[in-house]
Write the C-alpha coordinates for this entry.
Amino acid sequence: MQKKKNAAKGVAAKILGSGVLTWVLLLAIWKAGSLFYPPEFLPGPLETWKGAFSLISDGTLAGDVWVSLGRVLKGWVLGVVFAVPVGLCVGCFPWAGRIFEPFLNFFRFVPAIGFITLFLLWFGVGETSKVALIFYAVIFPVMVNTIAGVRSVDTALLEAAESLGARRAKTFFTVILPSAVPHIFTGIRLGLGSAIICIAAAEMLAASEGVGYLIYTSRLYYRTDWIFTGIFTLGLMGLAADKLLRILGKRFLSRFGVH
Protein backbone atom coordinates (compact mmCIF):
# COMPACT_ATOMS: atom_id res chain seq x y z
CA MET A 1 0.00 0.00 0.00
CA GLN A 2 2.80 2.38 0.91
CA LYS A 3 4.54 1.62 -2.38
CA LYS A 4 1.36 2.46 -4.30
CA LYS A 5 1.04 5.74 -2.43
CA ASN A 6 4.67 6.62 -3.17
CA ALA A 7 4.17 5.70 -6.83
CA ALA A 8 1.04 7.86 -6.99
CA LYS A 9 2.91 10.75 -5.40
CA GLY A 10 5.72 10.29 -7.90
CA VAL A 11 3.32 10.39 -10.84
CA ALA A 12 1.57 13.46 -9.42
CA ALA A 13 4.92 15.20 -8.93
CA LYS A 14 5.91 14.45 -12.52
CA ILE A 15 2.61 15.81 -13.84
CA LEU A 16 2.96 18.99 -11.78
CA GLY A 17 6.58 19.39 -12.82
CA SER A 18 5.78 18.98 -16.50
CA GLY A 19 3.43 21.96 -16.47
CA VAL A 20 0.55 19.98 -18.00
CA LEU A 21 -1.91 21.16 -15.36
CA THR A 22 -0.95 24.77 -16.01
CA TRP A 23 -1.78 24.39 -19.69
CA VAL A 24 -5.03 22.57 -18.93
CA LEU A 25 -6.05 25.39 -16.59
CA LEU A 26 -5.11 28.01 -19.18
CA LEU A 27 -7.15 26.26 -21.88
CA ALA A 28 -10.12 25.95 -19.53
CA ILE A 29 -10.03 29.67 -18.68
CA TRP A 30 -9.58 30.53 -22.35
CA LYS A 31 -12.52 28.35 -23.37
CA ALA A 32 -14.71 29.78 -20.62
CA GLY A 33 -13.85 33.33 -21.65
CA SER A 34 -14.55 32.66 -25.32
CA LEU A 35 -18.13 31.66 -24.48
CA PHE A 36 -18.99 35.28 -23.70
CA TYR A 37 -17.57 36.82 -26.89
CA PRO A 38 -17.91 36.26 -30.64
CA PRO A 39 -15.05 34.39 -32.42
CA GLU A 40 -13.99 37.60 -34.16
CA PHE A 41 -13.13 39.06 -30.76
CA LEU A 42 -11.98 36.05 -28.74
CA PRO A 43 -11.87 32.70 -30.56
CA GLY A 44 -11.80 29.58 -28.42
CA PRO A 45 -9.12 26.89 -28.52
CA LEU A 46 -11.01 24.84 -31.12
CA GLU A 47 -11.58 27.81 -33.44
CA THR A 48 -7.92 28.78 -33.09
CA TRP A 49 -6.84 25.24 -33.94
CA LYS A 50 -9.03 25.27 -37.04
CA GLY A 51 -7.46 28.55 -38.15
CA ALA A 52 -3.97 27.19 -37.46
CA PHE A 53 -4.76 24.03 -39.40
CA SER A 54 -5.77 26.06 -42.44
CA LEU A 55 -2.47 27.99 -42.30
CA ILE A 56 -0.52 24.76 -41.88
CA SER A 57 -2.37 23.02 -44.71
CA ASP A 58 -1.56 25.62 -47.35
CA GLY A 59 2.05 26.04 -46.17
CA THR A 60 1.63 29.66 -45.09
CA LEU A 61 2.62 29.13 -41.47
CA ALA A 62 5.69 27.02 -42.27
CA GLY A 63 6.92 29.60 -44.79
CA ASP A 64 6.48 32.47 -42.32
CA VAL A 65 8.22 30.53 -39.55
CA TRP A 66 11.26 29.77 -41.71
CA VAL A 67 11.53 33.39 -42.83
CA SER A 68 11.37 34.68 -39.25
CA LEU A 69 13.83 32.05 -37.99
CA GLY A 70 16.30 33.00 -40.70
CA ARG A 71 16.17 36.66 -39.72
CA VAL A 72 16.45 35.84 -36.03
CA LEU A 73 19.45 33.56 -36.60
CA LYS A 74 21.34 36.15 -38.65
CA GLY A 75 20.83 38.99 -36.20
CA TRP A 76 21.41 36.84 -33.14
CA VAL A 77 24.69 35.34 -34.40
CA LEU A 78 26.01 38.75 -35.46
CA GLY A 79 25.01 40.21 -32.10
CA VAL A 80 26.73 37.45 -30.13
CA VAL A 81 29.89 37.63 -32.24
CA PHE A 82 30.08 41.38 -31.62
CA ALA A 83 28.92 41.60 -28.00
CA VAL A 84 30.99 38.84 -26.39
CA PRO A 85 34.45 40.22 -27.37
CA VAL A 86 33.42 43.79 -26.53
CA GLY A 87 32.01 42.64 -23.18
CA LEU A 88 35.20 40.74 -22.39
CA CYS A 89 37.26 43.80 -23.27
CA VAL A 90 35.14 46.13 -21.14
CA GLY A 91 35.20 43.69 -18.23
CA CYS A 92 38.96 43.14 -18.35
CA PHE A 93 40.24 46.65 -18.99
CA PRO A 94 39.14 49.57 -16.79
CA TRP A 95 39.93 52.09 -19.55
CA ALA A 96 37.57 50.26 -21.90
CA GLY A 97 34.86 50.38 -19.27
CA ARG A 98 35.26 54.13 -18.87
CA ILE A 99 34.88 54.59 -22.63
CA PHE A 100 32.11 52.14 -23.49
CA GLU A 101 29.97 51.78 -20.37
CA PRO A 102 28.36 55.26 -20.56
CA PHE A 103 27.11 54.42 -24.07
CA LEU A 104 26.11 50.92 -22.99
CA ASN A 105 24.18 52.14 -19.96
CA PHE A 106 22.36 54.73 -22.06
CA PHE A 107 21.40 52.77 -25.16
CA ARG A 108 20.44 49.55 -23.39
CA PHE A 109 17.41 51.38 -22.04
CA VAL A 110 16.33 52.50 -25.50
CA PRO A 111 14.15 49.70 -26.96
CA ALA A 112 14.88 48.40 -30.43
CA ILE A 113 11.36 49.30 -31.52
CA GLY A 114 12.33 52.97 -31.14
CA PHE A 115 14.86 52.60 -33.95
CA ILE A 116 12.57 50.96 -36.51
CA THR A 117 11.88 54.19 -38.40
CA LEU A 118 15.55 55.16 -38.49
CA PHE A 119 16.68 51.70 -39.56
CA LEU A 120 14.10 51.67 -42.35
CA LEU A 121 15.43 55.05 -43.47
CA TRP A 122 19.07 54.01 -43.26
CA PHE A 123 18.90 50.40 -44.45
CA GLY A 124 15.68 50.30 -46.47
CA VAL A 125 12.69 47.97 -46.15
CA GLY A 126 14.63 44.83 -47.05
CA GLU A 127 16.29 42.22 -44.85
CA THR A 128 19.15 44.45 -43.72
CA SER A 129 16.98 46.71 -41.57
CA LYS A 130 15.38 43.75 -39.79
CA VAL A 131 18.69 42.00 -39.15
CA ALA A 132 20.20 45.27 -37.91
CA LEU A 133 17.29 45.75 -35.53
CA ILE A 134 17.72 42.23 -34.12
CA PHE A 135 21.46 42.82 -33.83
CA TYR A 136 20.76 45.94 -31.76
CA ALA A 137 18.32 44.06 -29.51
CA VAL A 138 20.76 41.19 -28.92
CA ILE A 139 24.01 42.98 -28.10
CA PHE A 140 22.97 44.57 -24.81
CA PRO A 141 21.86 41.52 -22.77
CA VAL A 142 24.86 39.58 -24.07
CA MET A 143 27.29 42.38 -23.35
CA VAL A 144 25.97 43.17 -19.86
CA ASN A 145 26.12 39.51 -18.80
CA THR A 146 29.59 39.08 -20.27
CA ILE A 147 30.87 42.09 -18.34
CA ALA A 148 29.23 40.79 -15.16
CA GLY A 149 30.82 37.40 -15.73
CA VAL A 150 34.32 38.84 -16.06
CA ARG A 151 33.93 41.05 -13.01
CA SER A 152 32.58 38.22 -10.87
CA VAL A 153 35.71 36.10 -11.23
CA ASP A 154 37.09 35.12 -7.83
CA THR A 155 40.05 37.38 -7.06
CA ALA A 156 41.70 34.50 -5.19
CA LEU A 157 41.95 32.61 -8.48
CA LEU A 158 43.52 35.60 -10.20
CA GLU A 159 46.03 36.05 -7.39
CA ALA A 160 46.87 32.35 -7.47
CA ALA A 161 47.51 32.49 -11.21
CA GLU A 162 49.73 35.54 -10.82
CA SER A 163 51.67 33.95 -7.97
CA LEU A 164 52.36 30.96 -10.22
CA GLY A 165 53.84 33.28 -12.82
CA ALA A 166 50.98 33.21 -15.34
CA ARG A 167 51.05 36.09 -17.77
CA ARG A 168 48.02 38.26 -18.50
CA ALA A 169 47.01 36.32 -21.62
CA LYS A 170 47.44 32.99 -19.85
CA THR A 171 45.33 34.20 -16.93
CA PHE A 172 42.62 35.37 -19.30
CA PHE A 173 42.28 32.04 -21.13
CA THR A 174 42.70 29.76 -18.10
CA VAL A 175 40.90 31.70 -15.36
CA ILE A 176 38.81 34.66 -16.51
CA LEU A 177 37.17 33.24 -19.63
CA PRO A 178 36.24 29.81 -18.16
CA SER A 179 34.80 31.48 -15.05
CA ALA A 180 32.73 33.90 -17.14
CA VAL A 181 31.24 31.24 -19.46
CA PRO A 182 28.04 30.66 -17.40
CA HIS A 183 27.27 34.39 -17.41
CA ILE A 184 28.05 34.64 -21.11
CA PHE A 185 25.78 31.70 -21.85
CA THR A 186 22.96 33.31 -19.86
CA GLY A 187 23.42 36.49 -21.87
CA ILE A 188 23.28 34.52 -25.11
CA ARG A 189 19.98 32.94 -24.04
CA LEU A 190 18.54 36.32 -23.10
CA GLY A 191 19.74 37.71 -26.42
CA LEU A 192 17.86 34.96 -28.23
CA GLY A 193 14.67 35.94 -26.45
CA SER A 194 15.22 39.59 -27.34
CA ALA A 195 15.76 38.61 -30.98
CA ILE A 196 12.43 36.78 -31.22
CA ILE A 197 10.57 39.64 -29.53
CA CYS A 198 12.22 42.13 -31.84
CA ILE A 199 11.51 40.25 -35.07
CA ALA A 200 7.80 40.20 -34.29
CA ALA A 201 7.74 43.98 -33.95
CA ALA A 202 9.89 44.54 -37.04
CA GLU A 203 7.79 42.28 -39.24
CA MET A 204 4.59 43.97 -38.13
CA LEU A 205 5.78 47.31 -39.44
CA ALA A 206 7.89 46.52 -42.50
CA ALA A 207 7.69 43.06 -44.05
CA SER A 208 5.84 41.05 -46.64
CA GLU A 209 6.28 37.70 -44.90
CA GLY A 210 7.09 36.29 -41.49
CA VAL A 211 5.16 35.49 -38.31
CA GLY A 212 4.95 39.14 -37.26
CA TYR A 213 3.58 40.01 -40.69
CA LEU A 214 1.00 37.23 -40.33
CA ILE A 215 -0.16 38.61 -36.98
CA TYR A 216 -0.36 42.19 -38.26
CA THR A 217 -2.17 41.49 -41.52
CA SER A 218 -4.67 39.07 -39.97
CA ARG A 219 -6.50 42.05 -38.48
CA LEU A 220 -7.45 43.16 -42.01
CA TYR A 221 -9.49 39.98 -42.45
CA TYR A 222 -10.84 39.91 -38.88
CA ARG A 223 -9.06 36.57 -38.44
CA THR A 224 -8.39 36.71 -34.72
CA ASP A 225 -7.76 32.97 -34.81
CA TRP A 226 -4.79 33.62 -37.09
CA ILE A 227 -3.53 36.27 -34.68
CA PHE A 228 -3.67 33.75 -31.83
CA THR A 229 -1.93 31.22 -34.06
CA GLY A 230 0.89 33.67 -34.72
CA ILE A 231 1.25 34.46 -31.02
CA PHE A 232 1.43 30.80 -30.05
CA THR A 233 3.86 30.18 -32.90
CA LEU A 234 6.23 32.84 -31.58
CA GLY A 235 6.04 31.28 -28.13
CA LEU A 236 6.78 27.83 -29.49
CA MET A 237 9.65 29.18 -31.60
CA GLY A 238 11.22 30.76 -28.52
CA LEU A 239 10.60 27.69 -26.36
CA ALA A 240 12.12 25.32 -28.90
CA ALA A 241 15.10 27.57 -29.64
CA ASP A 242 15.89 28.04 -25.94
CA LYS A 243 15.51 24.32 -25.28
CA LEU A 244 17.92 23.50 -28.09
CA LEU A 245 20.38 26.09 -26.83
CA ARG A 246 20.23 24.67 -23.31
CA ILE A 247 20.83 21.13 -24.62
CA LEU A 248 23.86 22.33 -26.57
CA GLY A 249 25.10 24.23 -23.53
CA LYS A 250 24.88 21.16 -21.30
CA ARG A 251 26.51 19.04 -23.98
CA PHE A 252 29.51 21.26 -24.74
CA LEU A 253 29.86 23.67 -21.79
CA SER A 254 29.04 21.53 -18.75
CA ARG A 255 32.67 21.56 -17.63
CA PHE A 256 32.40 25.34 -17.26
CA GLY A 257 29.37 25.08 -14.98
CA VAL A 258 26.59 25.45 -17.56
CA HIS A 259 23.61 23.29 -16.59
Observations:
- The radius of gyration is 23 Å.
- The chain has a mean pLDDT of 87.
- DSSP finds eleven helices and no strands in the chain.
- Residues 168-205 form the longest helix (38 residues).
